[in-house]
Amino acid sequence: MTLELLNNPISTCSQKTRMCLYEKGIDFINTTIDFRTNQHLSPDYLKLNPNGVVPTLLHDGRPIIDSSVIMEYLDEVFPEQPLSPPDAYGRARMRAWMRYLEEVPTAAIRVPSFNMAFVRHYNNYSEEEIQANADDRPLRRHFYKEMGQTGFSDTKLTASIERLGDTIERMDRTLADNTWLCGDQFTIADICVVPTVDRMRDLGLSDVWQSTRNFQRWWQAVQARPSFAKTYVAGTRVSEIYEDLRRSA
Questions:
Q1: What is the reported pTM?
Q2: Given its phi and psi angles, is residue 5 left (phi above 0), alpha (psi -120 to 50 degrees) or beta?
Q3: How does pLDDT run across 60-117, given as a tens digit for each residue?
């Protein structure tokens, strides 16, 4: 039995799955997919993951794609150190959180991430190159086309940050009566949002939660977990790549 995670150090979705693996204490091969050479868009990778994104988990060579699907798969196949509630109602609550987190903050964090960090690599692209780059993306074609050479509009950036703030507020309300998002058990719902929160801090957006109490208690507890330290090693944050972000983080 072999587990290989094809992923990238700074990818938030990759970070979810690595933290899940570390939390469960599962041995795996950590294989880096190089974004700089578009390895995630290569024919060989697209055979495994037709979406052209990371991560992809290979379990005895069979691919499992989508970070949340991977986490639920791992929890089902390796039930030791469970990261899902033991009852159907608890799992339904967990999945409701996961659907919200995937639809709202996971999508929202991409906009400031690209505006503040990644769009600089496209500043000198021609319109034809921008279109070609977008057309190469099976899952994010419209995202890259809208971003263009200069990033997303101020209106979209503001809306994305508002949605991130809405997430923090919703979590803070829930955590008033719960240790973790789904009660007393740390679950994959908590893991699902950790990379978004860490990226917010990395981009200098932590002021969003400065007035919270319950959320900050949760965030401190997350950072104290051994799996967090194993996930966020050197080279896993965008501020390590871009000096201007280090000044704002």
A1: 0.96
A2: beta
A3: 999 999 999 999 999 999 999 999 999 999 999 999 999 999 999 999 999 999 999 9
Cα 63 vs. chain centroid, distance in angstroms?
19
Alpha-carbon gap, residue 229 to 237, rounded angstroms: 13
Cα angle vertex 56, ends 55, 62, to 5°?
170
CA triplet 50, 53, 58: central angle to 5 degrees?
Answer: 75
Contacts of 226 (CB under 8 A, 6+ apart): 22
Judge whether 34 and 14 are in contact, CB under 8 Å: no
Contacts of 57 (CB under 8 A, 6+ apart): 3, 4, 5, 6, 17, 63, 64, 65, 70, 73, 74
Annotate 117-181 with DSSP letters as a single string.
IIGGGGTT--HHHHHHHHHT-TTTHHHHHHHTTT-S-HHHHHHHHHHHHHHHHHHHHHTTS-SBT
Angle of helix 188-202 versus helix 214-223 axis, rounded to 10? 100
Q: Tell me which residue of 88, 247, 220, 72 sits closest to 209, measured CA to CA.
A: 220
Q: Which residue has the tokens 């719960």?
A: 178
- Tokens matching residue 168: 């923090």
Q: Decide: 136 and 38 in contact? Cβ < 8 Å.
A: yes
